[in-house]
Every structure is written in C-alpha cells, then in structure tokens.
C-alpha cells in the first residue's frame, strides 16, 4: 500500500470501527439515547440542522473568527519565531514568556479580553490567535534552527544579503516546518473560537452549543459538535494539501532543491 492510499484508508477504517462500536452500543441499549444518540439519529439531526436550521450561519461566524485569529497568529508568530532562532538575545528575552503563556488557560483570559476589548468578534479573534500562537512559533524556531548551514554559507559566499538569504534560502527551506505549525494552529483556532463564544458572546457554534445545553437537547449538542469536527478536519486537510503543493512528486521538498541550486549558482541581485 502506498503512502497516499494509507493516508486515506487508515482514518476511514478508524471511523468505520468507531461507528460500528457506537451503533452496537446504542442498538443494544447499553447507553440511553438521552445521553448518546444513535449514529442514524445524529445523522438525521445533523442533516436537518444544516439544510433547515441555523447551523451553517453559526458555523460561518465561528469559521470567520478562527481564520482571522489564525492570520493574526501567523503575522506575529512566524516573524517572532525567526528572530528567536536567529538572534540569541531575542531568544533569551522572549522564550521564557512564550513558555509561560501556555500556563494560563484560554478560558481564564476571556474575562480580561472582554474588559480590554469588549464583547463580540474582536476578542474572540484575539483568543483564537492566542490558541494558535504556540505551535506556530515552536515549529518556526525549530525549522529555522535546523536549516543546513552549508547552504546558507554558500549563499553568503555568493554575495547574498540577509534579505536574499531569507527570501531565497532560509524561507523556502523552513517552509515545511512553518506550515506544520500553521496547520496545527489553524485547527486549534476552532477551539479558541468556541471558547470565546462561550464566555464573550457571539453568534457562532459556541452560542448554539449553549442554547442546546440549556434546552437539554442532546442530539442538538452532538450535531453542533459534529459540525465543529467537520470544520477542524476540513481546515486540517486544506492546510495539508497546501503543504503538499510545495513538494515534488518524489516527496522531496521543492524548496530544498531550489536551495541546492542556489548553493551552486549566484543568487539574483
């Protein structure tokens, strides 16, 4: 089995196994439908929510907050990660605070964001950015620090300045690592959006979960959770496809081949 087939068949097999166990447990009456709806019941409710209910409009609000927060995190985390990897004094000054930021739960920051920014989309976007920030900066630092120094030195010998090295060598070579962190961060941003909507208001899936909880609508809760899963998986797959787009068919990164050529030829002025 080739790699592509395995990447498709493995998650499908796991999903089929989980659904089979789920169906068997509910069909045997081991768990009451009041606590866990059957797969068929959930599929029917999800279809009704998507086609006739407000699910899609709420999902769009949550997705918008997650994407905006991810973009904000990228604009901060990637440049800062590069500086940490390249400048020792930035590493010493900033890294302890980056690590300490992970000790504060996102839900604990929400009341502060409300006080500083107010209710609505803006504080939710900031919370999404905070949730996405850490994996992006970590993978950026690792990607830059693991760059082949011989290729970078060859660029310097060819007369490249710092901008040319960054654009033609360091950036392309570090791109796979950076994209891996972005992929993880974008997925986490969905969680940040829901947490923000729980605590700071909004009209996304977090609000829909709250309404279903207050109404004791268990199928509605599971239907909303299923939509969150769909959004997270879709974002993950899209980022994965984008990352694959910068690789050659033989799985060797296109950017590494470009850097190898640049190591032998003068960089463009």
From TrEMBL:
The keyword Transcription does not apply. It is found in: Cell membrane. This is ABC transporter permease. It is a multi-pass membrane protein. It comes from Pseudoclavibacter terrae. It comes from the Bacteria. Keywords: Cell membrane, Membrane, Transmembrane, Transmembrane helix, Transport. GO terms for biological process: transmembrane transport. Belongs to the binding-protein-dependent transport system permease family.
């Amino acid at each position: 089995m080739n790699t592509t087939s395995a990447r498709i068949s493995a998650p499908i097999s796991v999903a089929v196994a989980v659904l089979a166990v789920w169906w068997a447990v509910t069909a045997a009456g081991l768990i009451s439908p009041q606590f866990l709806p059957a797969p068929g019941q959930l599929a029917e409710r999800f279809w009704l929510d998507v086609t006739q209910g407000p699910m899609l409009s709420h999902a769009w609000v949550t997705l918008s907050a997650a994407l905006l927060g991810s973009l904000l995190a990228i604009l901060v985390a990637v440049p800062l990660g590069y500086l940490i990897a390249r400048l020792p004094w930035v590493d010493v000054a900033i890294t302890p605070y980056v690590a300490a930021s992970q000790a504060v739960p996102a839900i604990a920051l929400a009341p502060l964001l409300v006080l500083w920014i107010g209710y609505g989309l803006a504080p939710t976007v900031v919370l999404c950015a905070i949730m996405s920030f850490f994996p992006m900066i970590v993978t950026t630092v690792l990607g830059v620090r693991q760059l082949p120094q011989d290729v970078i030195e060859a660029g310097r010998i060819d007369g490249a300045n710092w901008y040319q090295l960054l654009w033609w060598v360091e950036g392309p070579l570090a791109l796979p690592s950076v994209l891996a962190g972005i992929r993880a961060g974008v997925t986490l941003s969905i969680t940040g959006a829901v947490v923000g909507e729980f605590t700071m208001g909004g009209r996304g899936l977090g609000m829909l979960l709250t309404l279903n909880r207050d109404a004791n609508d268990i199928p509605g809760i599971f239907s909303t959770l299923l939509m969150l899963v769909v959004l997270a998986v879709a974002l993950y797959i899209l980022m994965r496809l984008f990352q694959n787009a910068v690789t050659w068919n033989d799985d060797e990164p296109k950017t590494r081949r470009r850097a190898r050529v640049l190591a032998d030829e003068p960089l463009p002025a």
